[in-house]
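Sanity check

After download, print the first record. It should look like this:
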Amino acid sequence: MSAGGIPEPRKREALVGHLAAARALAAGFAAGRLHHAWILAGPRGIGKATLAFRFARYVLAGQGGFLLAETETAPLYVAADDPVFRRVASGGHADLRAVEPAGARGEIRVDAIRDAGRFLRLTPGESAWRVLVVDGADSMNTSAQNAALKLLEEPPPNVLILLVTHRPSLLLPTVRSRCRILRLGPLDRSEFDEVLREAAPDLDAEACARLFEVSGGSPGAALELEQLGGRGLKEAVDALLDSLPAIDRQALDKVAAAVTASREAAHFQAFGRILSASLAGRLRAAGADAAWLEAEAGVSRLLERCAALSLDRRQVVFEIFGGLARTTAGRGQGAGA
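Expected structure tokens:
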């Protein structure tokens, strides 16, 4: 799954960041001791699926162990003009199956995993391997995870299963225990800028800096924020924080309306990322303060509860700023102080 102007993971030639993970996968394949199942875990939008498809191409192009040239700076590289790259990019490689969330509920259902299992048990047609990429593996419902567990427990020979997830805790413990886990972190600033320059060349340096701050080093999240008017929302949130302990009710109403206008959660999630980043920046500038540290933790807990329990998002916005106003009044200073 891709965001903004970033190419689809199966079509992306370059890998930005995650070199240690890529080298670990390459070394395992070269040594002939490759585990049959891997979980690629990390924040949304940092390139996990890009790495998964890059590894899939590399394995499929290896032709039974006759490895491609390997470099330290570009591990798992297969050129864009390679026939394997082209077939993977088009979705036409006979030995690769990709599964993603589908339907109104955005989940992966048991039929999709059972079909993938039948695919994995077939004899490879173009290479020595069969590869399954499950992008959004945490969206598998319980039945789908149980079906995946059977595959993980009794995999056919020369099969590689790559589970891509930003919420590995939602996978069954039995699923996690049968996989090797690669934990991928956010990109650093130079890596982040490299991706954004390619995906959104019109963004200036100031915009990139703000997006890096509010996205936590995730280019995918940054581009989603930009599409959702993230910079304008950040200005509005910062203005509310600067005015504390006073609250501009009209301005707060506008923010609450903007982030809850859609039934989809994307705008509210953008609000949560922006608010968390703004509070963290203020805490860094002001130094450790027990009351404000607790206030920031309270905001994080409320945002998590809202997501987990489907609370009224508009009411949550008001509760957050009400709590921040009380904390600010108790300290006798504004949030921007």
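If your output differs, re-run the checksum step. Summary of this record's structure: Residues 63-67 have pLDDT under 50 and may be disordered.
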